């Protein structure tokens, strides 16, 4: 079985909702050849296109995260588009991340995640 990548993921989700690649491309306001390049892993879509794909494919929250993570895996980036955009829009969060980097202590994140889980937020 082929390793999951962005193209395979999109094709799989598209077929689940019985949508042709042409229908998906037109719904996302992109050209069919561009979608074909995405599905064949020849091009990595922008955040905007990924968001349109997620909407038109009717993805749930976890699938949306996987879509963004697969896109960053393909582009050899370090942070998924959705996370990077959120970080850049949030000064407090950037300060927290820089603090943890400076302290070189990942236990801070584990403690925060445990606290969130205990409060039933995840």
Topology summary:
Layout: H1 6-16, H2 21-27, H3 32-39, H4 47-56, H5 61-75, H6 81-88, H7 91-103, H8 107-118
Task: Give a verbal description of the structure.
It is a single chain. α2 packs across α3 and α4 (47-56) packs antiparallel against α5. The longest helix has 15 residues, at 61-75. The chain contains eight helices and no strands. It folds into two domains: 6-79, lambda repressor-like DNA-binding domains (434 Repressor (Amino-terminal Domain)); 90-118, no CATH class. The chain is mainly α and 122 residues long. The protein starts with 5 loop residues before the first helix and ends with a helix. Helices cover 69% and strands 0% of the residues.
The CATH superfamily of the largest domain is lambda repressor-like DNA-binding domains
CATH class of the largest domain: Mainly Alpha
Tell me the total number of β-strands. 0
Uncertain segments:
none
Radius of gyration: 17 Å
Strand composition percent: under 5%
Q: Give the overall silhouette.
A: elongated
Helix content: 55-70%
Examine the coordinates and then state which fold CATH places here, giving the name of the CATH topology of the largest domain: 434 Repressor (Amino-terminal Domain)
Specify the biggest β-sheet.
none
Number of structural domains: 2
The N- and C-terminal alpha carbons lie at a distance of 32 Å
Based on secondary structure, the structural category is mainly alpha
Mean pLDDT: 89
Helix count, per DSSP?
A: 8
User: Which architecture of the largest domain per CATH?
Assistant: Orthogonal Bundle
């Amino acid at each position: 079985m082929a390793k999951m990548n962005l193209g395979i993921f999109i094709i799989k989700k598209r077929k689940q909702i019985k949508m042709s690649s042409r229908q998906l491309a037109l719904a996302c306001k992109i050209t069919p050849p561009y979608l074909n390049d995405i599905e064949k892993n020849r091009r990595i879509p922008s955040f905007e296109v990924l968001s349109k794909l997620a909407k038109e494919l009717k993805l749930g929250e976890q699938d949306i995260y996987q879509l963004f993570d697969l896109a960053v895996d393909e582009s050899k980036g370090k942070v998924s588009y959705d996370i990077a955009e959120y970080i850049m829009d949030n000064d407090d969060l950037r300060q927290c991340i820089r603090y943890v980097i400076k302290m070189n202590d990942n236990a801070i994140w584990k403690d925060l995640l445990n606290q969130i889980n205990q409060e039933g937020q995840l």
